[in-house]
C-alpha cells in the first residue's frame, strides 16, 4: 500500500503550490541524482496536468468508495476467518489463507478511520484535521498498514508456493505441506515483515508546522535520522518499500502462476488419454484454479504500483510528481479491493466453502439440501477449499 508516500503528500496539501513544490523537490530528490525542478506551468511532463485533473476528479469519490470497500472487506474477512477455522475446513493451505485474511482485515480496519477523517468529514477545521493526536494516529496508521500489507503480499506468495509443491510433489504432499510447517510459515512471515519494516519506523516522525492562520499543527514528516548521510535512509526506504515489496512478490507470483497453469495443462492432457478420471484430480483442479484467481487478482491490483514506483526511480522526480503521486489514491483503492474480494472468490469457486458458510449462517437452508460432508483435519491440502 502507498500509505507512507500518500500520507506524506496528503499532509502537505495545506501548503501553497510553491511550498509543496519546494517540499517535494527537497524530500524526494533521492529518486534521481539529476533532479529536475518541478514544473509549475500549465503544461507538465508525462501529461501531468491531465493526471492531476483525474486525481482531483477521483478524489471527490475516493473517501466514499474506500469506506464502502473497507466495511465490506472487514466483514468479508471476518467471515473468511470464521469459515476457514471450522473443524471441517482445517488444512495447511486454509491456515495460511486465514493468516492472509487477518492481515487484510487489519489493513482495512486501520484505513477506515483514516479515510473518514481525511476524505469524508467536511466539518473539520484545519486545527482538528492536523491535531497532535491525529498526527500520532496517522504515523501509526502508516506503519501499521505497511507492515500488514507486506505480510498479506508474502502470505499470498506463500500460498502459491504451497500449492505448487502440492501439485508438483503429490507423493510428498503430507510431509512438505504439513500443518506444522504452515503454522511456522505464517509466524515467520508476520515476524519477518515486522522486523523488515524497521527502516520505515526510523524514517518518519510527527513534526510541527504553521498553518495558514499561524497556529502550530502536526503532520507526518521525515525524521532527523532519515536526513543524515545524504538522505541514505530515505533512499533505502524508497527502493525497499516502493519497489522491492511490490515488484518482487509480483514477479514471484507471475512465475508460480505460470508454473501452476502449466501443471494444470499437462494434467488435462494426461486425462484426455485416460477414460477414468479420479475424483482427487478434480479436487486438485478446483483448488488450484481458485488459488490462481486469488494470485491473478493480486497481480492486477499490485503490479501497477510496483511498476510506477520502479519507473519513478528510473525516470526521476518529473515522473514521480506528475504520475506516481497522481495515482496515490487509486493505488490505495486497488490494494483495498484486493484485500476485500477474496471472500467472493471463495464463494464462487469453492463448493466446500459455500456449504460450510451456509451451514454456519443458514443452517435450515443446508439441512433441507443435506449436510456437507465432513473433512478430517488430517487431510492434505488437496482438499482445501473445495
From TrEMBL:
One Gene Ontology cellular component annotation held by this UniProt entry: plasma membrane
Keywords linked to the UniProt accession: Membrane, Transmembrane, Transmembrane helix
Bilayer-crossing regions: 61-83, 95-114, 134-164, 184-204, 238-265, 290-311, 331-349
One Gene Ontology MF term: G protein-coupled peptide receptor activity
Short name of one Pfam family: 7TM_GPCR_Srw
Gene3D superfamilies (alphabetical): Rhodopsin 7-helix transmembrane proteins
Name recorded for this polypeptide: G-protein coupled receptors family 1 profile domain-containing protein
Upper taxonomic lineage: Eukaryota, Metazoa, Ecdysozoa, Arthropoda, Chelicerata
Amino acid at each position: 500500500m502507498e500509505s507512507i508516500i500518500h500520507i506524506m503528500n496528503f499532509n502537505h496539501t495545506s501548503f501553497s503550490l510553491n511550498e509543496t513544490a519546494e517540499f517535494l523537490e527537497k524530500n524526494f530528490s533521492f529518486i534521481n541524482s539529476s533532479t529536475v525542478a518541478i514544473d509549475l506551468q500549465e503544461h507538465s511532463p508525462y501529461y501531468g496536468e491531465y493526471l492531476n485533473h483525474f486525481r482531483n476528479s477521483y478524489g471527490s469519490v475516493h473517501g466514499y468508495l474506500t469506506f464502502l470497500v473497507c466495511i465490506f472487506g472487514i466483514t468479508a474477512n471476518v467471515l473468511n476467518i470464521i469459515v476457514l477455522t471450522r473443524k471441517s475446513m482445517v488444512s495447511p493451505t486454509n491456515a495460511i489463507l486465514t493468516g492472509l485474511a487477518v492481515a487484510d482485515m487489519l489493513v482495512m480496519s486501520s484505513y477506515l478511520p483514516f479515510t473518514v477523517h481525511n476524505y469524508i468529514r467536511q466539518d473539520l477545521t484545519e486545527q482538528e484535521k492536523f491535531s497532535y493526536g491525529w498526527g500520532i494516529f496517522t504515523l501509526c496508521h502508516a506503519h501499521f498498514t505497511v507492515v500488514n500489507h507486506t505480510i498479506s503480499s508474502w502470505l499470498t506468495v506463500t500460498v502459491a508456493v504451497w500449492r505448487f509443491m502440492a501439485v508438483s510433489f503429490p507423493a510428498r504432499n503430507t510431509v512438505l505441506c504439513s500443518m506444522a510447517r504452515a503454522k511456522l510459515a505464517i509466524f515467520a512471515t508476520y515476524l519477518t515483515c515486522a522486523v523488515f519494516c524497521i527502516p520505515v519506523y526510523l524514517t518518519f516522525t510527527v513534526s510541527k508546522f504553521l498553518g495558514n492562520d499561524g497556529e502550530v499543527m502536526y503532520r507526518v514528516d521525515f525524521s532527523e535520522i532519515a536526513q543524515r548521510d545524504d538522505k541514505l535512509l530515505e533512499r533505502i526506504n524508497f527502493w525497499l518499500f516502493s519497489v522491492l515489496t511490490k515488484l518482487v512478490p509480483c514477479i514471484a507470483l507471475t512465475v508460480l502462476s505460470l508454473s501452476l497453469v502449466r501443471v494444470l495443462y499437462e494434467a488435462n492432457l494426461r486425462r484426455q488419454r485416460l477414460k477414468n478420471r479420479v475424483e482427487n484430480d478434480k479436487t486438485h483442479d478446483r483448488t488450484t484454479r481458485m488459488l490462481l484467481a486469488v494470485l491473478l487478482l493480486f497481480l492486477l491490483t499490485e503490479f501497477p504500483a510496483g511498476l510506477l514506483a520502479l519507473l519513478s526511480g528510473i525516470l526521476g522526480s518529473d515522473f514521480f510528481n506528475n504520475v506516481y503521486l497522481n495515482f496515490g489514491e487509486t493505488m490505495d483503492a486497488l490494494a483495498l479491493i484486493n484485500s476485500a474480494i477474496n471472500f467472493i472468490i471463495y464463494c464462487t469457486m469453492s463448493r466446500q466453502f459455500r456449504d460450510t458458510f451456509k451451514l454456519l449462517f443458514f443452517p435450515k437452508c443446508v439441512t433441507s439440501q443435506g449436510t456437507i460432508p465432513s473433512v478430517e483435519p488430517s487431510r492434505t491440502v488437496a482438499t482445501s477449499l473445495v
